[in-house]
């Protein structure tokens, strides 16, 4: 095998853009140390199949992988059907509105029901197809009644009308679910009943909702669809935007029985975390290409963000190849980290740099604005909860921030 | 904040490494640099060019229609913040099983980072296109630099031609004075390297910090000279 072929093989196995489903299929999955989010979700749904779960995490933290692992574990149960739905591939998230998750769930169950003699299920399938894809109906043309409504007061000035009654005193503690969404949920129940003999429990796992940049849209979906689907007695797992972990959107999590922050793996204070990250690389790269020391160095630079780990390993491979080396050494890893950090600098304003400098020096981070939350969403700031809970600037960005905003030496 | 620089030569090598596998390469270039044309010229018939559009569906369809490896995407400067946000939400549509090369301006790269952090996380880093000629020194300075270099180089050659130790050659005071000239020594060194492949690698490395010579070429004087000349072209040196 030529040098170029060796490096091409290495690059092909390290693709940050590859789908988690594909990586999972190729046996590249490695369980996270301790109890993973997938372990917790599947265990809880096994004993309470109607429960609801929210997973949030930063970019490239492995949320989809955890959902897929949960799906596979739940699907292994004979009485349970677990349906993974990647919303972004089926609908434009910019046009997400209440009712859409219920329709996607309905379409999935329609496929699962297949041909049926159950009249209610047949009708539900038709309704979901119409809701999803629209429908055209011919209606007979007839005379239009354009006269005044018989019940309306009309405009006779000689008549007087008195309004009797008043506003209701009782106000429901939360907004009722919209009638149209409830109608869809009722049809979902019809499909669920038709599947009753095959599956006692049905669980939906909705992915990609973390891409919603506006947490208010996510909150609206939760208020409507999540409540409507839960009312049908089916289990639910959602991936949501990281912003729901912080600030005013935090109350959305109350609608779920279980909440899982999927954070970066701590490889500074947790030896198991470091060996997990090295293990992930070892699944993709042999020792002769990527010695253990280089793998550990990559893990530290990644800050425990899984996609960044893969990205850095790939760039380090490029550096090694371009410099004529036969394997990836520390200098290639450091060059990759430098390039990665410089990319993270893009789009930062002076106020962001000040915030990052403070996080770097103090390890604490109080989110007081949307821009602060954006630093977490874009993983310039990482939060660790395992081991010693703390916030940190992404390791590849920290040295650059130190250059850009040198803090006065502590007196 | 400087980025890794890349020229047509290096693009060619990087593309060769990533041929047949999916991925993104983001190159920042000003529209005046004609980077797209230079890259397309360097990559030849395997590469195809594609103009980005705000209609993500149509853009993605055209991206997937083409079997080219790689596709060079330009026109990204026309994308607004909301178009980048849309690309971020629908990034799966952009993923293809081959290399996609994005050429964009600094402003677009910032817009991408701000509005499409998920998409940006799929890149290993941005490269800065660097083929624009560096500012050449005025003729009088260039002439003086050449004269200084000629004197020092002549002394170094004469006094070390019988020496076999690389260390002794590099530590020679004349060689060290050439290094001390800094960037001003580079054009005369490159001119000399073009005429005759001499041991200028350590001096060029000391001045620029670059290491363009593969270890496999260690000791191959002609190969080393070629690697440095290619590197200099890629990095915009004129001599």
Describe it for me?
The complex is a heterodimer of chains A (411) and B (239). Chain A has three domains: 3-14 and 269-345, Helicase, Ruva Protein, domain 3; 34-133 and 179-262, Rossmann fold (3-Layer(aba) Sandwich); 350-404, no CATH class. Chain A has a five-stranded parallel beta sheet, with helices on both faces. A two-stranded antiparallel sheet of chain A has the order 6-7. Chain A is globular, with a radius of gyration of 27 Å. Chain A has helices spanning 3-13, 20-25, 37-47, 63-75, 87-90, 100-113, 119-133, 179-194, 215-231, 271-282, 292-302, 306-322, 330-345, 350-362, 370-377, 398-404, and strands spanning 52-57, 80-86, 201-207, 235-240, 258-262, 381-384, 390-393. Chain A is an alpha/beta fold and 411 residues long. Mean pLDDT of chain A is 88; it is low at 407-411. Chain B is an alpha/beta fold and 239 residues long. Chain B folds into two domains: 4-129, Rossmann fold (3-Layer(aba) Sandwich), CATH 3.40.50.300; 139-234, no CATH class. Chain B has helices at 8-18, 35-43, 56-65, 81-89, 106-115, 117-120, 139-160, 166-171, 173-180, 186-195, 201-208, 221-234; strands spanning 4-6, 23-28, 48-51, 71-74, 99-104, 126-129. In chain B, strands 1-6-2-5-4-3 form a six-stranded parallel beta sheet, sandwiched between helices. In chain B, helix 4 (81-89) links the parallel strand 4 and strand 5 (99-104). At the A-B interface, helix 1, helix 12 and helix 13 of A face helix 1, helix 4, helix 5 and helix 6 of B.
Q: Which spans of chain B have pLDDT < 50 for at least 5 consecutive residues? A: none
Biggest sheet overview of chain A: 5 strands, parallel
User: What is the oligomeric state here?
Assistant: heterodimer
Structural class of chain A: alpha/beta
Strand order of the largest sheet of chain A: 2-3-4-1-5
The CATH topology of the largest domain in chain B corresponds to Rossmann fold
- The whole-angstrom Rg of chain B is 22 Å
**CATH architectural label of the largest domain in chain A:** 3-Layer(aba) Sandwich
Q: How many strand units of chain A?
A: 7
- Determine the CATH superfamily of the largest domain in chain B: P-loop containing nucleotide triphosphate hydrolases
Helix content of chain A: 40-55%
Global shape of chain A: globular
Give the helices and strands of chain A as they follow along the chain.
Answer: HHHEHEHHHHEHEEHHHHHHEEH
Q: Choose one word for the global shape of chain B.
A: elongated
Number of continuous helical runs of chain B: 12
User: Which chain pair shows the most residues in contact?
Assistant: A-B, 49 and 45 residues
């Amino acid at each position: 095998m030529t040098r170029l072929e060796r490096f091409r093989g290495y690059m092909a196995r390290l693709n940050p853009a590859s789908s988690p489903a594909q990586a999972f299929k190729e046996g590249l999955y490695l369980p996270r140390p301790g109890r993973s989010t997938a372990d917790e979700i599947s265990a809880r749904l096994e004993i309470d199949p109607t429960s609801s779960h929210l997973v949030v995490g930063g970019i490239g933290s492995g949320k989809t992988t955890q959902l897929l692992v949960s799906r596979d574990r739940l699907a292994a149960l004979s009485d349970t059907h677990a349906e993974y739905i990647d919303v972004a591939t089926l609908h434009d998230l910019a046009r997400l509105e209440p009712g859409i998750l219920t329709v996607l769930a309905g379409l999935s169950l329609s496929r699962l029901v297949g041909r049926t003699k159950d009249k209610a299920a047949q009708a539900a399938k038709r309704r979901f197809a119409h809701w999803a894809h629209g429908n055209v109906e011919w209606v007979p043309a007839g005379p239009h009644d354009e006269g005044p409504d018989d019940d309306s007061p009309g405009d006779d000035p000689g008549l007087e009308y008195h309004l009797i009654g008043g506003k209701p005193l009782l106000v429901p503690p939360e907004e009722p679910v919209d009638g149209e969404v409830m109608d869809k949920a009722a049809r979902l129940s019809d499909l669920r009943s038709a599947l009753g003999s095959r599956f006692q429990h049905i669980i939906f796992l909705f992915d990609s909702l973390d891409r919603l940049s506006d947490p208010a849209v996510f909150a609206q979906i939760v208020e409507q669809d999540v409540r409507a689907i839960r009312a049908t007695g089916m289990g639910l797992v959602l991936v949501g935007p990281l912003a729901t972990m912080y600030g005013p959107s935090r109350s959305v999590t109350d609608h779920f029985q279980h909440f899982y922050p999927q954070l970066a793996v701590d490889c500074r204070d947790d030896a198991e975390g470091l060996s997990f990250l090295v293990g992930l690389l070892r699944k993709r790269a042999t020792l002769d290409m990527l010695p253990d020391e280089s793998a550990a160095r990559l893990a530290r630079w990644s800050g425990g963000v899984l996609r960044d780990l893969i990205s850095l390993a790939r760039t380090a491979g490029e550096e090694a190849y371009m410099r004529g080396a036969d394997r990836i050494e520390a200098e290639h890893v450091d060059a990759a980290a430098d390039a990665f950090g410089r990319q993270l600098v893009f789009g930062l304003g002076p106020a962001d740099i000040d915030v990052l400098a403070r996080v770097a020096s103090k390890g604490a981070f109080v989110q007081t604005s949307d821009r602060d939350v954006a630093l977490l969403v874009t993983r310039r700031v990482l939060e660790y909860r395992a081991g010693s809970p703390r916030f940190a600037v992404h390791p590849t960005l920290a040295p650059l921030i130190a250059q850009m905003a040198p803090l006065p030496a502590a007196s | 904040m400087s980025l890794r620089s890349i020229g047509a030569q290096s693009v060619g090598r990087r593309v060769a490494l990533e041929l047949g596998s999916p991925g993104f390469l983001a190159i920042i270039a000003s529209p005046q640099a004609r980077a797209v044309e230079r890259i397309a010229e360097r990559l030849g018939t395997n590469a195809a060019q594609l103009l980005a559009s705000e209609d993500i569906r149509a853009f993605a369809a055209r991206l997937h229609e083409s079997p080219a490896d790689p596709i060079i995407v330009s026109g990204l400067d026309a994308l607004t913040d909301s178009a980048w946000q849309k690309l971020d939400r629908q990034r799966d549509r952009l993923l293809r099983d081959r290399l996609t090369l994005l050429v964009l301006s600094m402003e677009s790269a910032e817009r991408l980072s701000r509005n499409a952090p998920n998409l940006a996380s799929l890149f290993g880093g941005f490269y800065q296109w660097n083929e624009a000629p560096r500012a050449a020194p005025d003729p009088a300075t260039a002439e003086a630099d050449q004269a200084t270099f000629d004197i020092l180089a002549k002394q170094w050659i004469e006094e070390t031609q019988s020496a076999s130790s690389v260390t002794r050659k590099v530590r020679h005071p004349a060689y060290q004075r050439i290094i001390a000239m800094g960037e001003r020594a580079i054009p005369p060194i490159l001119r000399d390297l073009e005429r005759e492949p001499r041991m200028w690698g350590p001096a060029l490395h000391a001045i620029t910090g670059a290491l363009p010579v593969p270890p496999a070429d260690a000791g191959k004087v002609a190969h080393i000279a070629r690697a440095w000349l290619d590197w200099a072209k890629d990095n915009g040196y004129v001599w």
